[in-house]
Amino acid sequence: MAGDNGSSDPSAESVDFALVAYREEGVWQVEEIDDDLTADLDELAVELRRYPGDGGSLGLVSVDEDFFVLVRVLGSETRLLLSDVTAATDWPIARSVVDHLALPLPDDEEDQEPAGDLGIVADLGMGPMDMGALLDDVDLYPDEMLSDIARRLGFGRQYDELVGVSTTL
Question: Whole-prediction pTM value?
């Protein structure tokens, strides 16, 4: 498999961090979740459903300082956003997102572009146009993009404390 660096699961071992964010009685809660859960998108969705968020819960996964995945669950609904579709050729979690979205695998010549629901957090404060503009900034690392998303949604301080990011966005 491309991206296999000799380990049994390159996806889980290359996860920079995995977090869950959810609002409980209007207050954002942000917690780390086990990186091993990111090896399987269905397992991750099941884990995210354990959190009692008003409006569901949001999983934030950064992989190898290369791309991120947002997974939002609300009841039986699962919404997905992959920051870079080309990651699907190298990383199991990205391939899983592409498979769930029923998209073809990208070829090597494709440019970096997002896949999935740009409006995944529109009702929480960041619309699809703002999300698209953020994802177009190729100079930002995934943790910086996720920090910006967290800040816009209202849990930036908690995110930055857990991840250890210092941004000036």
Answer: 0.88
